[in-house]
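hiii, so i know i said id send this last week but things got crazy w the move. better late than never?? heres the sequnce for the chain we talked about at the cafe, plus the structure i predicted for it. fair warning i was half asleep when i ran it
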Amino acid sequence: MRKKSMQQQLIDTARALVAPGKGILAADESTGTITKRLDSIGVESTEANRQAYRDLLFTTEGAEAFVSGVILFEETLFQSGLDGTPFTDLLTGKGVIPGIKVDKGAKPLAGSPDEKITEGLDGLRERLADYAKAGARFAKWRAVITIGDGIPTDYCIDTNAHALARYAALCQEAGIVPIVEPEVLMDGPHDIHRCEAVTERTLARVFDELLAQQVLLEGMLLKPNMVISGTECPQQAGVDEVAATTLRCLRRHVPAAVPGIVFLSGGQSDELATRHLNAMNQHGDAPWTLSFSYGRALQAPALAAWSGKSDNVPAAQQAYYRRARCNGAAARGQYTDAMEQDAA
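okay and structure toks below
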């Protein structure tokens, strides 16, 4: 049998990550972020507690019916489950693809300190080789675009777009599918129209850079924000308007060659993120698969139910399974209010 080309392997992995009715669990919180989440339930952020929490998520029976891949933090990639099985083997054994967050976080942008640039390109080629050996088959890099008075600047969008494309090219060189995440933040008083304009500017530059740096579009995924009202906007757009506006924006700037768009939840409530995804899929005419890559919106009920107690693991797993099931249905456009009531 002829060995698959690296390009074909990338395409196959990207397509598997957006298999019908499946999406991605983002369990890639940095140590600082997971510490805040554990603090919120009164649990100390030790390596053992972080391991135990990730273990309960990854061992949830049946979740693989709705979760195609899991984005891991570097610590977790090299950890084992509570039974001693390496997490990458545990996930792979369930048919779930392991991934890895590779950026080093957003830092103040030189010359424009109210904006951010994501760092982590130095040494990335070598790190990617190590991650691939450890079992990672896809990766994620997040860029942050803030809406405010006079921002985002072209400078900020350009530098982040260049870094996203450089990361994506290095990933594909290593045989790893890149998830490209340009997040326009929802913080602020701006309305949905301002969000749409900024998201359009951002996506246009990102895809210009991806093409310039010869990234194989069929072997990547896009993880964008939904086009949504700012958190402080007095007039919040409804579910149907968010769905229609987001789809219009994406159709204008995302080539049909990209196999899938896996949305971030971006601070939305668990239920609202699901409703928005479902509404987009009910349109039924997108050229890409529309799915999810949620962190908090998949995990929050499980984290609250667990509260750091081993006796609560079954309840926490049930809460995670329910949210995964709801979002799997939304990825098909089949989510209903009755499902949410069942989940309650």
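btw The mean pLDDT is 96. thought thatd interest u
miss u guys!!
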